[in-house]
Amino acid sequence: MEQLIQLQHLRKSFGKHPVLRDVNLTVSRGEIVGLIGPSGSGKTTVIKTMLGMEQADSGTTRVLNTTMPNRALLSQIGYMAQSDALYNRLSARENLAFFGRMKGVGGAALKEEIAHVSQVVGLTDALDQRTTGFSGGMKRRLSLAIALLGDPELLILDEPTVGIDPALRRQIWHELAQLRDRGHSVLITTHVMDEAEHTDRVALLLHGDIIALAPPQVLEKQYQVPTIEDVFLKAERED
Q: Which candidate among 119, 185, 215, 233 keeps its CA 20 to 30 Å from the CA of 35?
């Protein structure tokens, strides 16, 4: 199966502190991979190094069959960072239009996409409000909507559901599942362990290494526990 993300022997230290020791990870076409781990385990560093925002000390990174970093490729990826990068003087609609045009979407297609992604994240009624007045959760939703613009074949989402209520979280996961079923791929980091149950494979990052990468049900059987949260807790104790 075609692999849209290939990380091999990725290493990254900040000063004398190793964050990524030997990370190997793949994401195939048409699957959702959840990257989970405790705070400070290096999940965001994996993503930033993968996209060329941080320089790896060693190892190789290929995204969409292209060796990274490659700035031109970024427009083909739906990326949602852990911190929101929005234009607060603009409305939500204006932010979406700006980023949509940057992704090469325009005209009637852009109008339709804005309507669709704002509905997915529950912001339809707030489209014409300036984002300076948005709550943290609303900003996260708008950032996710921006990542969804352009129907990218690869989504990389760093903690996308922080501050989002359970009903909307379920709607977002429904949308991600539909994207996967159409052959798109998703790499998502999350602290919400029950969300990992919705993924096709879970990558467990501890102490700079991915110590497990398998479907949730396989990991639960392997660790002899009923949930991914229990897998996480047991793996942390044993590591």
A: 119
At 1, is the pLDDT very low, low, confident or very high (cuts 50, 70, 90)?
Answer: confident
Strands 209-214 and 32-36, bridge-based pairing: unpaired
Beta bridge partners of 30: none
Handedness of CA 190, 196, 200, 204 (dihedral sign): positive
pLDDT tens digit sequence for 25-84 = 999 999 999 999 888 889 999 999 999 899 999 999 999 999 998 888 888 899 999 888
Name, in order, each residue with C-beta under 8 angstroms of 82's C-beta and a sequence gap of 6 or more.
Answer: 44, 158, 159
Under 8 Å between Cβ of 27 and 185 = yes
Contacts of 31 (CB under 8 A, 6+ apart): 180, 185, 186, 200, 201
pTM beyond 0.70: yes
C-alpha span between 21 and 70 (Å, rounded): 23
Q: In this model, does residue 222 exceed pLDDT 90?
A: yes
The whole-angstrom distance between residue 231's C-alpha and the CA centroid of its chain comes to: 21
SS3 state at 34: strand
Residue by residue, DSSP assigns 190-207 as: -S-GGGGGGSSEEEEEET
* Residues 5, 7, 9: CA angle, nearest 5 degrees: 175
- Asked if residue 62 lies in contact with residue 6, where contact means CB atoms within 8 angstroms, the answer is yes
- Res. 97: pLDDT tops 80: yes
